[in-house]
Amino acid sequence: MKQKLPITDLAVIKQMLPHREPMLFVDSLISYSESSIVSQLTISASNIFVQNNQFQEAGLLENMAQTVALHTGYKAMFSEATPRIGYIGAIKKATFERLPSVGDDITTEAIITYNALDMTRVDVAVFLEKKRIARATMTTILKPETNEA
């Protein structure tokens, strides 16, 4: 049975992602479709990518990648599969117009433009108060599944 959206319970989010603190950069799932996903994150002062009260570019990129991973994890959750570990394979055309500050709620939207086998290419944008502050085209690759007996 699918979870009603949005999902704001961090325990449920953790069921869909292999990431854990201090490397967890998604705290809500807002919407999901076969070809897109929207997540949110509240920037906390304890975040390892916060410097001088601002969430840095590396954190925004990791938030983008984890949003893609959340798409895979949400789909896996309902087939009773374990969330798979993924890697950023390539980042193309990343731009950053503004860095969010501690306390800001960012919304990240990923649109899948290509998906084959364990590789996914997405266009990802991060928004703050409905204004785009960062975007990238990213390719993610899932770690191969192992058949352990």
UniProtKB/TrEMBL annotation:
SUPFAM superfamilies according to UniProt: Thioesterase/thiol ester dehydrase-isomerase (SSF54637)
Protein name: 3-hydroxymyristoyl/3-hydroxydecanoyl-(Acyl carrier protein) dehydratase
Pfam families named in the record: ApeP-like
InterPro entries on file: ApeP-like_dehydratase, HotDog_dom_sf
Domain of life of the native organism: Bacteria
Organism in which the protein naturally occurs: Jejudonia soesokkakensis
